[in-house]
Every structure is written in C-alpha cells, then in structure tokens.
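Here is an idea for our session: we take a single protein and study its fold together. To get us started, please write out a protein record for me. Once you have written the record down, we can walk along the chain together.
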Amino acid sequence: MAPPKKDTEAINLRLPRELIAAIDDRRRVEKDLPTRPEMIRRALVQWLEMTAPDA
C-alpha cells in the first residue's frame, strides 16, 4: 500500500449502516469500483460543486 499523500488529513467518521450500504450500492455502479473512501470523496466533491454559491 502506498503511503498517504502529504497534503491530506485522515478523518474518522461513523456512519449509519444504511448509509454505508447506500454508498456501497453506488460504488458498484461506477465503472472503476472505487473504494469506500474514494466514493465518499467523489460524493463530497460533487455536493460541493452543486451547492457552491454563484461566483
């Protein structure tokens, strides 16, 4: 396993099992089957882009 990137920070997060199951279901739709952390990153980036105030 590669070491983490230097410009990142670990976050410990507890989620309801139903939400984890939903994340896993969504992961399986992706062509590259991302890891859970990667799927959460993608979801956060998408949410941030969708909810960004108009500049």
